[in-house]
Design goal:
Helix content: under 10%
Largest sheet: 7 strands, mixed
Distance between the termini: 11 Å
Number of strands: 12
Shape: globular
Number of domains: 1
Structural class: mainly beta
Radius of gyration: 15 Å
Number of helices: 1
């Protein structure tokens, strides 16, 4: 993890999507959505899950909570989230929303160079989905 200033850091975030949607037919895509509604496909894993990664800037707010910023951070500072989006022929047909607000500043501070913040979600869901397993985890490289 690199610091961009004393008040802001860059964090690598990874979402593992188990049971991702089937991508059958032309014009169907599934990916991590940026603020310009572009989709970035995941990396297929041996267990058929998809791994999505992005870098987010993060700073600590006055209340001690992290505020995630950047091209992939959607929502308000109090309710930031990532979108995994399914499109067909350029139209959004389904979104999975994964909130970032359950990550703690303590987790951010514990990150070392090469570490990632990782969470797992079920790709069969839609809307705001819960994290699987133990929630946000710091994964060492």
């Amino acid at each position: 993890m690199a610091k961009t200033s004393q008040a802001e850091r860059v964090v690598r975030v990874r979402i593992i999507c188990v049971e991702p949607p089937e991508l059958s037919g032309d014009g169907v895509e599934f990916g991590l959505q940026d603020k310009d509604q572009r989709l970035y496909p995941g990396t297929p894993q041996a267990d058929r899950s998809l791994r999505f990664e992005c870098d987010l800037r993060v700073k600590q707010e006055a209340d001690g909570k992290p505020n995630f910023l950047g091209a992939f951070a959607h929502g308000t500072p109090e309710d930031r989230f990532l979108y995994l989006t399914l499109k067909q022929d350029g139209q959004i047909t389904r979104r999975i929303q994964r909130k970032l607000v359950t990550a703690t500043w303590g987790q951010i501070e514990s990150l070392r160079y090469g570490d990632v913040m990782q969470a797992m979600i079920d790709g069969r869901s839609t809307g705001s989905v819960p994290l699987l397993g133990k929630g946000w985890q710091v994964i060492s490289s």
